[in-house]
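Hi F.,

I've been meaning to write this up properly since the lab meeting, where we talked about keeping a consistent format for the predictions we share between groups. The idea is simple: the sequence comes first, exactly as it goes in, then the structure tokens exactly as they come out, then a line or two of notes. No screenshots and no reformatting. I'm using this chain as the first example so we have something concrete to point to.
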Amino acid sequence: MPATGMIQPIRRAASWDLRRTAILSRYVFGEFLRGWLLALTVITAVMFLGMGGQTLVTMQESGIDQIVQTLPLIVPMTLPYTVPFSLLVATTLAFGRLSADNEVEAIRTSGIHLACVIVPILLLAMALSVGIFLLNDRVIPQSWHSQRTMLLSLLKSDTALRMLGVRGQHMTFTKTEEDEDGNVIVIKQHIYIQDIKGDLFIGVQYREVVGGKVRRALVAHSARPEINPETGEVGLKFFNASIHEFDEDDPYRPSMTEVENEESILVAIQLTDPEEMQQRKFVEMSIAELREKRVERLTALNDVKAEAMNDPREGGERRWKRIQRHVYQIDTEIQQRYALSVSCITFALVAVPLGILVKKGNKLVAFLISVLLVILIYYPLLVGGRAVAEDGLVPAWACIWSSNAVLFVIGMVLMRRVVRQ
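Output, unedited:
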């Protein structure tokens, strides 16, 4: 009985310590979380406005539909930068306020280890690192590809419309299509425009030529151009047109169809090579695709080396250097995606001890120091390291990870001091 009577108070005390620690951890984490969400919203909005402004300048002559489709693609591109930076801001300010209000000292004197309030922040940073990695590997490459193909299509369509908008000149375009047997046929499209009124072409003549023979001819009172940004085609809608269809067996007796004013037919003029639209840049590939591309480039590099040994020419050396640079660029792109993901952890490791170690009333000093560390050390090392790595002067992993390594060392030194106190 006496032993049981002694155990009960000990259990109650231990239970109370656990509840007190949990309450304190939730309180600090809640303070941090509110600040982080606010900082993330503001910083992402600012970066979105900057990148969106550049996109609007590029697409200033495009329709509102294309602009609305493009702008949402910018948001995921900003997150690998705004998430770590907002984490840095929120963490420094949250722990700086705790230190300035002497709450850190109160936690220490109550017998609660500071790790109880630090670990939840670091766990969140790790979870965010995983999320940023998935964004970098899956979502952002697709966003880059969708944006590029849309902008490329619009730019080429705009160029073609200017070409089409030339009065009194015959213009020729080329497109390809498959016949019923799966054979690729080349179609020459000849267009003549007599006059232009606004966005309407007046006095339009159109001919399709396959294998030197006219397959179809149109003569229209007017036509209006339309752009398909997904396929890279400009379509001409003909109004009040006469359509002449030519048969290979009897080319001298074409069939003719009259199109009324309220009707139209669509003739697509291919502006952009579909294969070019589907080709992906390195930033548009997942890490698995980048690794496959690297193997492909290394194989091509070995082939070029073998050719150069048998027939040493200046052109072979230039090709070798170009392929070698592709390999360096792929290595750099892969390492940067991992490094940007881990930046959430390194930023938190620096921000937590800086916020705690500041003196009373100087919480903004820690915030400014942490921001300067990132702006003056992290990003210059990251950007400069990428340039050096792409030239192959230093291995990509050493260049790209140097920024994280420097902040990690600084963070661990400061964290060690906090733990000792």
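Notes:
The chain has two domains: 2-158+326-420, 166-273.
Residues 9-14 have pLDDT under 50 and may be disordered.

If this format works for you, I'll send the rest the same way.

G.
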